[in-house]
């Protein structure tokens, strides 16, 4: 029987083996979880805002599709919003953040500590719908309800600027005596532009005649909006699954190789000892 003690293989070796196998197991679980998620995505029906979607909703129970994907292009219902900072930039959702950063003197550490102050946020939105990509005149449109409830980021940053404070010598002397001074002003604007390709995962219902509405699902599934198409979204998840699969193999192989090398060294020492006896 092969027996070896800790002095024949360092504790560090066992820690490395255990850690490698533990990480391999962790990545394998993440891979399996992502595989299940991909399968769920593949089972979701995909539509564009066209007659096919309208017919399917009309034929469904209660004229409602509980959870589907809709690919379209953003178009406002009425006048769009105009960017505060970027000329000729129009959208349907606008978020503006203006934030001041000040420096406060800390007498204990004798250093200036930066702190966010006077944060000003503004959110604006106009009703919008999704129309069929490439259609000159769209006969079917899907109104997007409660887009701010969606969990996926879909806004584009169209403006970001940091303005640093430039005070004179006298101002700095006064601020040093007071113990606080302005450092910078940061302005950021994010917009969902008109004409942006947008895919929504949610519940589609028929309201009046040909009026379709995409809204947060009532069955507990996530309400998603993202600026890629369904296929790109699926490929992103598949790439993540491949990454977890590769990491599972790398760490599993590393742990198994290190364990085999440790056992081989222990066996060699055992054989040498048996040869001397």
3D structure, described in words:
- This protein has 277 residues and is α+β, with helices and mostly antiparallel strands.
- The chain has helices at 11-42, 51-59, 169-178, 230-276; strands at residues 45-47, 64-76, 81-82, 90-106, 111-125, 128-131, 141-144, 156-164, 180-193, 197-206, 212-215, 224-226.
- The protein has 4 helices and 12 strands; from the N terminus they run αβαβββββββαββββα.
- Strands 2-6-7-11-10 form a 5-stranded mixed barrel. Strands 3, 4, 5, 8 and 9 form a 5-stranded antiparallel β-sheet that branches.
- Helix 1 runs antiparallel to helix 4.
- It is flat and about 95 Å long.
- The model is unreliable at 1-8 (pLDDT under 50).
Indicate the topology:
Blueprint: H1 11-42, E1 45-47, H2 51-59, E2 64-76, E3 81-82, E4 90-106, E5 111-125, E6 128-131, E7 141-144, E8 156-164, H3 169-178, E9 180-193, E10 197-206, E11 212-215, E12 224-226, H4 230-276
Task: Describe the main β-sheet briefly.
Answer: 5 strands, mixed, barrel
Mean pLDDT: 86
Number of helices: 4
The radius of gyration is 30 Å
The general outline is flat
N-to-C terminal Cα separation, in Å? 16 Å
Q: Order of SSEs, N→C?
A: HEHEEEEEEEHEEEEH
Number of strands: 12
Q: Helices and strands: which structural class?
A: alpha+beta
Percent of residues in helices comes to 25-40%
**Low-confidence parts lasting 5 or more residues at pLDDT below 50?**
1-8
Order of strands across the widest beta sheet?
A: 2-6-7-11-10
Strand content: 35-45%
